[in-house]
Amino acid sequence: MKRYFPIIAIVLLLTSCNDNIFDHPQGNVSLGEVVVTLTGDDNLAGIEVQLRNTSTNSVYVQQSDAQGVATFTVSPGIYEATATGKRAKEGIAYSYNGASGQLVVTGSASLPVAIAMKTARVSQIIIKELYNGGCRADDGVTQFQYDKCIILYNNSDQKASLSNLCIGEATPSNAQSQNYNYGDDGKLTYEKEGFIPLWNGIWYFPSTLELEPYTQVVINVHGAIDNTKTVSQSVNYANADYYCMYDPESGYTHTSYYPTPASVIPTSHYLKAVRYGLGNGWALSVTSPALVLFQTKDIAPVDYISNTDNYWYDGGRYLQTWLCVKAPVDWIVDAVEVFSAGYKDSSVKRLTADVDAGYVWLTNYQGHTLYRNVDKAATEALPENEGKLVYNYTLGVDGSTDPSGIDAEASMKQGAHIIFQDTNNSSNDFHERAKCSLR
Questions:
Q1: Cα–chain-centroid distance for residue 249?
Q2: Cα–Cα distance, 396 to 379 (Å, whole number)
Q3: Which residue of 17, 44, 76, 124 is most buried, as measured by CB atoms within 10 A?
């Protein structure tokens, strides 16, 4: 629920008597040690642990040992650690994820870090694609952002039926914004309470969503029209099969976001909304949203969202601007955390590790989209895919590509069934694609 970062291996050949000092352009720098211990399961060997320097974006990778421990020797700085793995028990696939942020590493010191691994079942319905970054107008300069969409996909061979399905955005809306929800322990304050706070408003399907195996549904967020008539690099949403976020009665009336939908889209495909924050548009971040797909189980969405017992205020700031609704973690179907490529030194996670242990980078206003990686082994194992898979995928951006090499869209046009990767870690599960698959 994202792409692999380069593994950086540092081999230090030192002549100094102090093994924790190395040559640096600004003088000798003492190294610090980070000892990550994983907990929460009987078998935590072989879990991939990543340590990222939040200033330089350098990423270090280790596999946990038989005791669930991974040790890093790194230069001083502020780091975040994530861990992800996969196990199968009694025929059911589970993903294991954990994270710890804001780790201050000092020279010649050992920092113990305990990460409690969270367990999640692999979802039947996944976010296959998120197009939120906008594109350039035909003059090549003007930015256009009123054409966002989300594509959901049935990643299984069984028909999916989801009632009370909702879509929200975690707070703060931009990953690079000041985040007031971290405690002194470096963890999100709501992690121990088991929910994700969703900001401003929530959209929901007015009826049960049903998807056949290996099929998708397109949900327009903004601009449910043929946008290509005015911006050639944009997306045409004038399609009777598409859904759209359009509910002026909710208070979301911003005409740039919500022009009257194309006449071919049936009104039964209009999502409804409950707005509890300020503003007349659900402004899904154009740089770095944390998108959450969830169900309200046996409670009607409007009843749950409107219940003040489910309210929560970002950073304890009791103003309507910061009002959020709690989405219990065990209600979440899928989620993806996005970081902006323009803010690599200041992006901070909002989703807890049991929801999404990683993040995927996005360069906005280029027409790029975030696209889920193919599970190569699972897809190739389907007997019906023989002779239908297309390889040599070339649409990844700046070396960020689908590791499988399979061109999912071209393969599906050949009749192939694609199984996408789902480890609840967007760093592994997504990549930045050069253009939206709808173009």
A1: 30
A2: 19
A3: 44
